[in-house]
Amino acid sequence: MRKSSLFFAAILIMAALMPASAFAKMTNPVDAWNRHFDTWLVVAVVVWLVVTVPMLYFLVKYRRSSRDEDGVYIKGNTGLEILWTAVPTIIIALLGVQSWRVFNTYREVPQDAYEVRVDGFRYGFEMIYPEGIKTINELRVPVGPVKLSLSSRDVIHDFALPGFRIREDMLPGRFTYLWFYADKPGEIRHVYCAELCGPGHSLMQAKLIVMKKEDFNAWVASKKGVEGSASLSQDIRGKELIKQCTGCHSLTGERITGPTFNGLFGRETLLADGTKIAVDEAYIKESIRSPKARIVDGYPPTMPPFNLSDKEVDAIVAYLKEIK
Ligand code: CUA
């Protein structure tokens, strides 16, 4: 009885500590998640010890010593039974309270959050900022709370930012959301697609860069200037825009999901319908806007249409001519 009281004492202490953890203030998803994980880890380890240590001890202590030995007949113990029903019930209820609070921390976005729209596509992420700027596979945010509105242009993707303990599906035709608190400037974290979305899935990654407020505003201003100015050299724009294509089209000649861009312009190409063409501006433009119109022989018709402006398409064509 003395030994079993020791184990119940351990459980009781844990039950007493639980409310502190379950009702503590949760300020952002990282906080909430880390606390949640630590609490469950402690509970799991203590429960495991309470079950396995006595079990091993009793196995040895009460092993059968002769072939015809009978075990002692033990009647129930009401007090113990109440205790081992009530204590776990309380622990589970408190874990439930904590889970509910973690869930709410994830769902309640602070009013002053900076909001960025993120579109998933095969295979990359496009960030659309409230100022009208776009970036590919690079998410820049100011220090503070950030809300991400997620959607997809083709199949189901999943935006995962493990450094901030968040992930959420990106669904075509629907918006989902996430938020995190970017606390340190200069922090670079990796964004992954966490839903198998095709052969280029593992290439679907992005970078998060947290900037000081002033630096971020300066970056926004410089980007806006660049987008608006006609003087920007086309290949710089093309080089930026082409990032949304390189998940499927290599620049090196390597065959991935789609035909390589290396030496694309002017290339003799066999189409799926048996005709032969030389790749020209018209074909490139058509393939960006209605990719399924003329498919290259031997490749799957999986590319989604890209809704780019005439200027953007021109910049891409100029860049493709360049890397010929
Ligand atoms: Cu997108 Cu996996």
Overall description:
The protein is α+β, with helices and mostly antiparallel strands and 324 residues long. It folds into 3 domains: 2-61 and 76-106, no CATH class; 114-227, Cupredoxins -  blue copper proteins (Immunoglobulin-like, Sandwich), CATH 2.60.40; 233-322, Cytochrome Bc1 Complex, Chain D, domain 2 (Orthogonal Bundle). The chain contains 7 helices and 12 strands. The chain has helices spanning 2-23, 29-61, 78-107, 213-228, 234-241, 281-289, 310-322; strands at 114-121, 124-128, 134-136, 138-142, 144-152, 157-161, 166-170, 176-182, 188-193, 205-211, 268-270, 276-278. The chain has a 5-stranded mixed β-sheet, with no helix packed on it. Helix 2 packs antiparallel against helix 3 and helix 5 packs across helix 7 (310-322). The chain binds dinuclear copper ion (CUA). Residues 120, 123, 157, 193, 195-197, 201, 204 line the site of dinuclear copper ion.
The beta-strand count equals: 12
Beta-strand portion reads 15-25%
CATH superfamily of the largest domain: Cupredoxins -  blue copper proteins
Query: How many structural domains can be distinguished in the coordinates?
Result: 3
**Percent range of helical residues:** 40-55%
Compact description:
The chain is α+β, with helices and mostly antiparallel strands and 324 residues long. It has helices spanning 2-23, 29-61, 78-107, 213-228, 234-241, 281-289, 310-322, and strands spanning 114-121, 124-128, 134-136, 138-142, 144-152, 157-161, 166-170, 176-182, 188-193, 205-211, 268-270, 276-278. The strands form three sheets. It has a five-stranded mixed beta sheet, with no helix packed on it. A five-stranded mixed beta sheet has the order 4-10-9-6-7. The chain has a two-stranded antiparallel sheet with strand order 11-12.
